[in-house]
Automatic annotation (TrEMBL):
Residues 279-429, 437-566 form the SIS domain. GO terms for molecular function: carbohydrate derivative binding; glutamine-fructose-6-phosphate transaminase (isomerizing) activity. It comes from the Archaea. This is Glutamine--fructose-6-phosphate aminotransferase [isomerizing]. PROSITE patterns: GATASE_TYPE_2 (PS51278), SIS (PS51464). It is an enzyme of class 2 (transferase). Residues 2-215 form the Glutamine amidotransferase type-2 domain. Catalyzes the first step in hexosamine metabolism, converting fructose-6P into glucosamine-6P using glutamine as a nitrogen source. It catalyses: D-fructose 6-phosphate + L-glutamine = D-glucosamine 6-phosphate + L-glutamate.
Length: 576
């Protein structure tokens, strides 16, 4: 949710900022912009739309300068307009800022400042005016510290000071990293911002700020004391290979699932073996196991609860944004956080709450060096590689594979070896039928999906994908719940997808209830309905979600929708 970037050095400024923003645009793609310093003057180029469109219109790539900041926005305060796009300038045009997060007390801060002209409706713009005003009575550094102390909420800010020719960077809540090159310094919301340029980085902790100028950088705490931070060498081959002939990343990423699972399996057995053992030990040594996650990762956590249950370990899960309202944790609790990005604010908040109450924390993430990984006692990487499409697909499969592997180690007997090959076959054998079904469903307003046991989380996940990509209202439900209310909505021709792993009388009764109301009954099953599956009940969730992913993809394709960048969403949600 909003990506920020900054650069001090001799590269071609416009080209660097443009490429860095393209790599960050999964964090938000409502608008984008850059501010560069050239001959003592700040030049701003910004607009609504995706970075590539803005480049075509404003030639971002052809912008000179020695210092520059950039921003890609996911709108929170203020609608998606050019005025609300970052960077924002102070009235005297000395300062430009880019901000990720939410400043909760921006109105109070604004009320302290007199005579300033605001050009946007954002909470962020107040930063530029505040620093302008306060730096009349104190140094810019003191003004930054003062702002930092007074601001409430989450912030990662990059400030360009055109007079002193410096950048200031400060962080609380939202992520911020500094990359170290040869006579050049990079800033970014995450490593993607600059990982093409350097493999040396420093991660800011909360309440730290940095000053970047021609001599390099210095990092200080909120009291102005210098903090010695050892740069980390990140060994991270996460370069995105492009669409490789596919029309959309989503379809390409579904196709990558078999390789991603194989890579994960190898890593869990070799490079990550010790972490796996530690993870398993932590589960054994805690009385209470609580998962927490958001969205798709929450559906993975439901699978985790099911798998641990099969290994005779009681566990529960709760959506991260409600965790502190519904869960009591203590030193006998192990909290297992699951997050693809490792930056989801709701998850980080649940972890912070749990930590304060004395819990231990394990996590399962995809993006290496992310905040969730760094805040955990032990963390496993799911090795899915970069997922460019906003909708999670390959990362969901690798999350549930990791959970199944852990449950295996704890006693849930299950063979995992055949999963990658069989997923490949499921795609190959079923895609033509899925395309046909997509044509039949494209004009439907509502779709219901029912499952039981380990297909219940899959029903929820299919529903989420149908909402997110083809914009169809969908509900994923426990089959047994249908008759307790929702059945009232099931009438002639309403599509209901049933996930039926075996000849299980309970789910079959639910299907009968639907068919008795003349619904459009679609069965996903190895023994009935249009699709073909390997005969393996325990792995059915892995195969059936592939049908769900492809169905969402092909309906959206039929509707000509922006599949990789669905409206109003962002890949990394760093506000609560
Ligand atoms: C859906 C999707 C989201 C994310 C959610 C959590 O396709 O991608 O629902 O799963 O925003 O994100 P992470 O896993 O990064 O914490």
């Amino acid at each position: 949710m909003c990506g920020i970037t900054g650069y001090y050095g001799n590269k071609n400024m416009g080209k660097y900022l443009y490429n860095s923003l393209k790599r960050l645009d999964y964090r938000g793609y409502d608008s984008a912009g850059i501010a560069t310093l050239n001959n003592g003057k700040i030049n701003i180029k910004k607009d609504t739309g995706e970075v590539e469109q803005i480049n075509q219109k404003h030639n971002l790539e052809k912008t000179d300068g020695k210092i520059g900041v950039g921003h890609t926005r996911w709108s929170t305060h203020g609608s998606t307009t050019k005025q609300n796009a970052h960077p924002h300038l102070s009235c005297d045009e000395r300062f430009a800022i880019a901000h990720n997060g939410i400043i909760e007390n921006w109105k109070d801060l604004k009320s302290q400042l007199n005579g300033h002209r605001y050009t946007s409706e954002t909470d962020s713009e107040v930063i530029a005016h505040y620093i302008e005003e306060k730096s009349k009575e104190m140094s810019v550094e003191e003004a930054v510290k003062k702002f930092f102390k007074e601001a409430k909420g989450s912030l990662a800010v990059v400030l360009l000071d055109s007079k002193e020719e410096k950048m200031y960077a400060f962080k609380r809540g939202s992520p911020l990293a500094l990359g170290i090159g040869n006579d050049e310094t990079f800033l970014g919301s995450d490593l993607y911002a600059f990982s093409t340029e350097t493999d040396k980085a420093i991660f800011f902790e909360d309440d730290e700020y940095g000053i970047i100028d021609q001599t390099g950088y210095v990092i200080k705490n909120i009291n102005g004391e210098e903090v010695e931070k050892e740069p980390e060498n990140f060994d991270w081959d996460q370069e995105e290979a492009g669409k490789e002939g596919y029309e959309h990343y989503m379809r390409k990423e579904i196709g990558e699932i078999p390789q991603a699972v194989e890579r994960l399996e190898n890593s869990l057995n070799s490079a990550q073996e010790k972490q796996v053992d530690r993870f398993v030990e932590l589960i054994k040594n805690h009385e209470k196991i609580l998962f927490t996650a958001s969205g798709t990762s929450y559906h993975a956590s439901l699978m985790g609860v099911y798998f641990l249950n099969k290994a005779d370990i009681e566990a529960q899960t709760l959506i991260a944004s409600e965790f502190k309202n519904y869960e009591r944790v203590d030193e006998d609790t192990l909290v297992i956080a699951i997050s693809q990005s490792g930056e989801t604010k709701d998850v980080l908040d649940a972890m912070e709450y749990s930590r304060k109450e004395g819990a231990d924390i394990a996590s399962i993430i995809n993006v290496p060096y992310s905040s969730v990984e760094r805040e955990s006692d032990v963390s496993l990487r799911i090795m899915a590689g970069q997922e460019v499409c906003v909708a999670a697909t390959k990362t969901f499969i690798n999350q549930i594979y990791t959970l199944l592997k852990i449950a295996n180690k704890l006693g849930y007997q299950n063979h995992l070896e055949e999963i990658p090959k069989r997923i490949e076959k499921v795609i190959e054998k079923n895609e033509p039928k899925i395309k046909q079904l997509a044509k039949e469903l494209k004009n439907k307003n509502d779709i219901y999906i029912i499952g039981r046991g380990d297909t219940y989380p899959i029903a929820r996940e299919i529903a989420l994908k149908l909402k997110e990509i083809p914009y169809i209202h969908a509900e994923g439900m426990m089959g047994g719940e249908l008759k307790h209310g929702t059945l009232a909505l099931i009438e002639e021709d309403v599509p209901v997808i049933s996930l039926i792993p075996e000849k299980n009388s309970e789910i079959i009764s639910n299907v009968k209830e639907i068919e008795a109301r003349n619904a459009k009954s679609i069965k996903i099953s190895p023994w009935t309905g249009p699709f073909k599956f390997p005969n393996s009940n325990s792995k059915f969730p892995f195969y059936t979600i592939i049908i769900g992913f492809l169905l969402s993809y092909w309906i959206a394709n039929e509707k000509n929708l922006p599949i990789d960048r669905p409206r109003n969403l962002s890949k990394s949600i760093t506000v609560s």
